[in-house]
Amino acid sequence: xxxxxxxxxxxxxxxxxxxxxxxxxxxxxxxxxxxxxxxxxxxxxxxxxxxxxxxxxxxxxxxxxxxxxxxxxxxxxxxxxxxxx
Length: 85
Description:
CATH architecture: 2-Layer Sandwich
CATH class: Alpha Beta
Strand content: 25-35%
CATH topology: NE0471 N-terminal domain-like
Helix content: 10-25%
Number of domains: 1
């Protein structure tokens, strides 16, 4: 019996710093990234405090990422569980 790799198939901007993520197994989650970004000030993250920049995410290799060099990316299972830390 093989294992199924879960990935993000699509993501929708909800508002503020929140995305609604849709996973390959049919699960969907709303994830609020604001607490993480505010609690972890870093030049790579700070630009995404602005919703206009936060909305510029892409889906690459089954994960949601920000920036050309993946400035911000989170472990997939954290996103699947709806919590970023």
